[in-house]
Amino acid sequence: MAKKPKFYVVWRGRQTGVFDSWDECKAQTHGFDKALYKSFDSKAEALKAFRDKPHEHIGASPGTAKKTPNRLFVGEPNADSLVVDAAWNTATGDMEYQGIYLATRQRLFLMGPYANGTNNIGEFLAIVHALALLHQKGSNIPVYSDSRTAISWVQKKKANTKLDPTPHNAVLFELIRRAETWLKTHVFANPILKWETQYWGENPADFGRK
Fold it and tell me: What does this protein do (predicted)?
């Protein structure tokens, strides 16, 4: 009888996401410091788990209540990393994004504002911008974002936005197209990690306009 296939969620590894085989999962986690991953019986279950925090699944038996996490489990962010964030003006619809080097808080890029955007699009473009910049420098340091949606889009190499293109945001949609093309034509080893705001405080790349 054929063995039922497993699906693997990698929350922390060289690349994060849902993988269809152990070999793919192992490639992202073997030798990676403090890798977080787990297998699931169905892809739907794995996709749902990827949207959750890892402590809600790792070490928990099926049907058990979710455990309250602690800072020790989550750990600390890697200072040798690039952190990105985006800001969206609800009044004007303008969006901008930036990236900083965490160890020194030096801003490495600031882009925008772009008309008629969304925060998710900004987060997506920020991650890809960071990956492209690090690729040029030959650096494999991690990239942190506090947007699970944007991280998922990068993993899928597709910005799954529901925003309609208009003459006002044509520049933005051209940037999205270029970002998707870059993801499909380049290989990178930079881990894309979730910034754990609950434990580490506000994303250092935040624009501070809340």
Answer: Endonuclease that specifically degrades the RNA of RNA-DNA hybrids.
Answer yes or no: is 206 a known binding residue. Answer: yes
Taking the chain, what is the end-to-end CA distance rounded to the nearest angstrom? 56
**Structural domain count of the chain:** 2
- Predicted pLDDT of residue 13: 86
The annotation status of 52 as a binding-site residue, yes or no, is no
Whether 68 maps to a domain, the answer reads: no
Say if residue 51 is in the same domain as residue 82.
Answer: no
- Is 85 annotated in a binding site? The answer is yes
Q: Give the dihedral sign, CA 208/172/157/52.
A: positive
Q: pLDDT digits over 124-173, tens only?
A: 999 999 999 999 999 999 999 999 999 999 999 999 999 999 999 999 99
Handedness of CA 203, 113, 160, 130 (dihedral sign): negative
Distance CA 9, CA 29 (A): 11
SS3 at position 4: coil
Q: Which two tokens stand for residue 92?
A: 């004007």
CA torsion sign for 136, 157, 37, 146 is positive
Tokens of 22: 């152990």
